[in-house]
Amino acid sequence: MTGTHIQPAAVKDILLGIFLCMLIILIMHILPVMDLFVWIFLPLPVLFYRLKVGRHAGGIIIAVCITVLAVLTGNIAFNLLYFGFFLMTGFFLGEYIEKLYGIEKIMIYTFLAVSGIAIVFLLVYAGFQNMDMGNLISTFIKDYKTYSMQIFSQTAQLYPQMEIDVKQLERVNSFFILMIPAIFMNAYITMMWLNIVYIKRLLSKKGITLTTLENLNHWKAPDFLIVCVIAAGFLLFLPIHALQIFSGNCLFVLMFIYFLQGISVVSFFFDKKSAPFVLRFFFYVFITIQPLLMFLVIGFGLFDNWFNFRKLDMAAR
Q1: Is the pLDDT of residue 67 over 70?
Q2: Which of 31, 135, 267, 280 is the 20 to 30 Å CA partner of 197?
């Protein structure tokens, strides 16, 4: 890792970082169906070159990409907020990884920093447009709903044999709108987690070991989250629609956190038994297509708080 000064030799790295970010953004624009698989990697070039070249280089990559988007796109505000959010995620992940924080602090501080900048952007934009925050958020939600229906429509055109019911899609989309906070949080947590895992491997190949990110398969959620699960479950059964939506979003996020803990448990035993890559690959792929297995993994994560499947406390002694 380097300091904050940019050396002449770093210009090539900066240009390559800009190219990779713009290539990912171009793929997302041209092939919206691929959006789900590609956007996760958008922070990675910024993260890698932020750590390799320095803070100034990461800032230049973001500034150039956002400027190009501002010139080329018509819906400037939505695109800048959407893509800028992901690009800044790579930058702040690099900031906190370089400070040698643990994975929880890296992810929490990154989320708070990027969210703070996004809120300031929204306030400034709303001021210039003479709009209140409620109308502005409604506009962004409407844009998201249109965008998601576009993806559903393209999927239906690609797979006509699926006989997709448009009304059913609209009902699913309406459910997604209510669950936007949880869906966003889970997607964002996934993005940060995967980018940390990828950058850890990339740096490891270059002989750089991040001691604070070693043994990620030992990770477990804080104990107090169990109380949050119980409280959210209780609120879900109260006959108050707003509380049901709130508790449903909270439960969705909490279950995903315990899913990650369950994945850590599975990964721990894979490593302990030296399981081959093929077995790991098919298991992880099977999780994504088999809901029952996903619930089983969530159960592993949830009950690991009581049964300590990995016997981590004993191993520490």
Answers
A1: yes
A2: 31
